Amino acid sequence: MSGGDLDRATVAKAYARWAPVYDLVFGGVFERGRKAAIAAAERIGGRILEVGVGTGISLPDYARSNRLVGVDISEPMLRKAHERVADLELTNVDALAVMDAERLGFADGSFDVVVAQYVITTVPDPEATLDEFARVTRCGGEIVLVNHIGAETGLRRAFEEWFAPMARRLGWRPEFPFERLRAWVERSPGLCVVERRPVPPLGHFSLIRFGKDDRDSGDGPRRPEHGRAQVSQEGRRHGAA
Predict the structure, then answer these.
(1) Is residue 231 part of a domain?
(2) What beta strand segments (E) does the chain contain?
(3) Which range of residues forms the domain containing residue 130?
(4) Three-state DSSP class for 34?
(5) Cα(first)–Cα(last) distance of the chain, in Å?
(6) Is residue 1, in this structure, part of any structural domain at all?
(7) pLDDT of 194-239, one tens digit each?
(8) How many folded domains does the chain comprise?
(9) Rounded to an integer, what distance in angstroms lies between the CA atom of residue 224 and that of residue 14?
(10) What CATH code is carried by the domain that includes residue 108?
(11) Angle formed at CA 216 by CA 210 and CA 217, multiple of 5 degrees
């Protein structure tokens, strides 16, 4: 399924405008989600790719035992990230690069974990982007997303649809249902949803983990118990499937 409603130039320009104030405006709002994504990634650890690394606000929170690579489509955002890495002497950050999430310049299976925080609703083609995440993740690794997931019914869905044209000018789409992620994983051999749960504030964001089949072990995909995603009781209250 193609995004079609966002283009790279619009997104890049939007985040160039956000770069000077991004940490001030979004740092606190997204903090709990960032920390949840990092904790999930460090269950596996090792070589971690952060797509949409932005200003690098999350990089200091990773354990120094991990080797980090960050990419982003916005050069002004990455300049902030380079400054942060230098100022904090983050020697475990191997590289920061301007890169299109739909065309990652890495070999297959290059990373133990791919992390994308608040990214999947800002790319023109989310499914193609997820395909790239899966390609560069090693067998037995995971993809970790934190993102706003659109409401399926009710007043919030109506608001998201009303707000969508303005949101696109700001570089993202608010009406992004979980069904798109479900459909993607169902057509992607060797992948499964390991976990889906809401994260603060107010459960408007979700942490989603995808596991990639460790084919070398011969055990097949690492399915959650009973063959379905783990969803917390809080997630059910917020309408998680």
Answers:
(1) yes
(2) 47-51, 67-72, 93-98, 111-117, 137-148, 191-199, 205-212
(3) 8-237
(4) helix
(5) 21
(6) no
(7) 999 998 876 678 999 999 998 644 444 343 333 333 333 333 333 3
(8) 1
(9) 38
(10) 3.40.50.150
(11) 85
